[in-house]
Design a protein that fits this description.
Number of helices: 19
CATH superfamily of the largest domain: Periplasmic binding protein-like II
Largest sheet: 6 strands, mixed
Helix content: 40-55%
Distance between the termini: 71 Å
Radius of gyration: 30 Å
CATH architecture of the largest domain: 3-Layer(aba) Sandwich
Structural class: alpha/beta
CATH topology of the largest domain: D-Maltodextrin-Binding Protein, domain 2
CATH class of the largest domain: Alpha Beta
């Protein structure tokens, strides 16, 4: 009360002063206020924290190289990596569950190439089309960029690439005076020659277990025979066409003729890699991760292996299945601006080069495949670039997961002689058409 009485007395005296004096007084009060504000301690701005879920094997290289560099250049943003399971299918399930609950804690979304259509169709991702110019995207492998699109819109920027490839024993072919294969028929012929000479036990190794790796492997054989799985534009299904049936017949023949081991229908990547690395096979379909392992100091095939894009059937063009990982932004993120900054930094050339050099991942930026600093350490990258350029996508459709499950089941039935290739592919095509038709109806 005394304060208000004193203030009232001051104001009555102040009002009677000459106008010029009043102006000077108000100016002095204003200057004093600004000085006091400038001198007072300011509460530091709390950094924004972005959360990102990824599989456990990827966490160490990310935290060691990518996160430290990003936070050093962006002191107001923290990047928190949440460690998920090793199995990427379980990782996809964790993202899906978080989105379905409606308030996902993740700001950035690390995606396998085959997740993009599903996540985008569900409305879980921010549309990045207007954020990255054609010039920005031209630096990346075109197939890697296309792997981040859904219905013509961009939702994912590639961080690292991956692609199926054909490994072969160049030493055995040279000793036998044989040229590397150019077709699937060549693989079968060369395998038999080397097996007859007892140079190897098996000819050709591939992933035949009923899982996503089977679909990835088959899309290469399907492309090589001139067939297609699902046309993403028209949703036409090609699994019961003659080209697809011949593709299944080729794989079945490799087993029936002893070119591939009977157990190949249970093999995943590591099963095939170990057999090949132990010198038991002439040809191997696998991913780039196998190269450094095959050339370890203790590897029996060190220096004896070469790589090439997956071959086609005679008269056709081949293609290697595109894999790889990229980043998108969750629609529920409260920090989309900061998340976009993170994507630009993490997919930049300096960041990707550091990531490739230290962690051995395959780049998605085209010029890094031939950069001297990288080729000095990874001499096979220029050859790998040819494989990436020849990559093919699995169908970028919203129902991809269900479509792949159908293909896996019927392929497995054919490869284990439960159904003929014709029966299996006809049934797979019919079930796929029903699935896609139901999806169309639900969208109306």
């Amino acid at each position: 009360m005394q304060f208000f009485t004193a203030l009232q007395s001051f104001w009555s005296v102040f009002r009677r002063l000459p106008r010029f004096i009043r102006y000077l007084g108000l100016l002095a009060i204003g200057i004093l206020y600004m000085v006091l504000v400038a001198a007072s301690p300011v509460a530091p701005q709390q950094p924004v924290t972005l959360q990102l879920l990824m599989s456990a094997p990827d966490v160490p290289p990310w935290t060691k190289y990518m996160v430290k560099a990003f936070e050093a250049s962006h002191p107001n943003i923290r990047l928190q990596i949440v460690e998920g399971p090793n199995n990427v299918s379980l990782l996809e399930d964790m993202y899906t569950t978080a989105f379905l609950l409606g308030d996902s804690p993740y700001d950035l979304v690390t995606m396998d190439v085959i997740w993009t259509p599903k996540f985008a169709a569900a409305g879980w991702l921010v549309d990045l089309t207007e954020q990255f110019s054609p010039q920005d995207l031209a630096a990346f492998s075109p197939t890697d960029v296309n792997g981040g699109r859904y219905q013509g819109r961009l939702y994912r920027i590639p961080v690292r690439s991956d692609v199926g490839m054909l490994y072969y024993r160049k030493d055995l072919l040279e000793q036998a005076g044989l040229a590397p294969p150019k077709t699937f028929e060549d693989i079968a012929t060369l395998s038999k020659v080397l097996q007859d000479r007892q140079a190897v036990r098996w000819g050709y190794l591939w992933q035949g277990k009923q899982y996503e790796g089977l679909s990835a492997m088959f899309v290469e054989v399907l492309k090589g025979f001139g067939g297609f799985w699902v046309n993403p534009e028209t949703l036409e299904v090609g699994l019961d066409r003659p080209e697809a049936i011949r593709a299944v017949q080729f794989l079945q023949d490799t087993i029936n003729q002893g070119i591939s081991p009977p157990g190949v229908t249970t093999y995943v990547e590591e099963d095939t890699r170990r057999l090949f690395q132990n010198g038991q096979a002439a040809f191997l379909r696998n991913w780039p991760y196998a190269w450094p392992l095959l050339n370890e100091e203790t590897s029996p095939v060190k220096g004896k292996v070469a790589i090439m894009p997956m071959v086609p059937a005679a008269g056709q063009q081949g293609g290697s299945c595109l894999g790889g990982w990229g980043l998108g932004i969750a629609k529920t993120s409260k920090h989309p601006k900061e998340a976009l900054e993170a994507i630009r930094f993490l997919t930049s050339e300096p960041s990707q080069q550091k990531f490739v050099m230290e962690a051995g991942y395959v780049p998605s930026r085209q010029n890094l495949f031939n950069k001297p600093q990288i080729t000095a350490k990874y001499s096979y990258y220029p050859e790998l670039f040819k494989v990436v350029q020849n990559a093919v996508l699995r169908p970028p459709i919203a129902q991809y997961a269900q479509t792949s499950d159908i293909l896996q089941r019927y392929l497995s039935a054919a490869l284990t002689n439960q159904k003929s290739p014709e029966q299996a592919m006809k049934a797979a095509a019919e079930e796929t058409r029903r699935l896609l038709a139901a999806g169309k109806k639900s969208q109306k």
